[in-house]
């Protein structure tokens, strides 16, 4: 993994793309980024489904720009420390999740599994889609797969 650029600590765009600094972790920055995203999710105000979808759309669109700009500025496409995409992927996973910390932990684990293993079409997008969209899309797809699994588990046991 590439070293964390010093600009992360002085450029607000880079700081956000690096997940408020969580992506600067020496090991497993994606996991630390997802953990930071989970902590932020816990602090989000309650939202109805439509407002939550608008929140996801906004954070996705902002993420395309943040991640693309940061990658361009530092000269590394999808630097391991760019973790805004992990934030959005986890927040997508948690859409309509049942309340409770257990569900957040399960969503976290499911998202990390899909983000790390990258089954098709995640791996294809990761290799073939460029720029900020390329950085964001694989995590959004991992979030959608984790969301589907989380909802299937919830429907099966609740």
Automatic annotation (TrEMBL):
Keywords in alphabetical order: Membrane, Transmembrane, Transmembrane helix
Q: What is a GO molecular function of this protein?
A: phosphatidylglycerophosphatase activity
GO BP annotations of the record are: lipid metabolic process
All residue ranges annotated as the YutG/PgpA domain in the record: 16-153
Transmembrane feature ranges: 50-67, 88-111, 131-155
Protein name as it appears in the record: YutG/PgpA domain-containing protein
């Amino acid at each position: 993994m590439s070293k964390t650029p010093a600009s992360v600590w002085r450029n607000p765009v880079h700081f956000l793309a690096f997940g408020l600094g969580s992506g600067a972790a020496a090991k497993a920055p994606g996991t630390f980024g997802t953990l930071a995203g989970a902590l932020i999710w816990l602090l989000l105000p309650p939202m109805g489904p439509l407002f939550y979808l608008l929140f996801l759309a906004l954070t996705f669109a902002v993420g395309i720009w943040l991640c693309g700009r940061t990658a361009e500025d530092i000269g590394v496409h999808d630097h391991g420390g760019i973790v805004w995409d992990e934030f959005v992927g986890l927040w997508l996973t948690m859409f309509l999740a049942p309340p409770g910390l257990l569900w957040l932990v399960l969503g976290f684990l499911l998202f990390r599994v899909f983000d790390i293993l990258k089954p098709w079409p995640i791996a294809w997008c990761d290799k073939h889609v460029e720029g900020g969209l390329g950085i964001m899309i694989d995590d959004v797809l991992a979030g959608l797969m984790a969301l589907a699994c989380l909802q299937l588990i919830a429907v099966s046991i609740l």
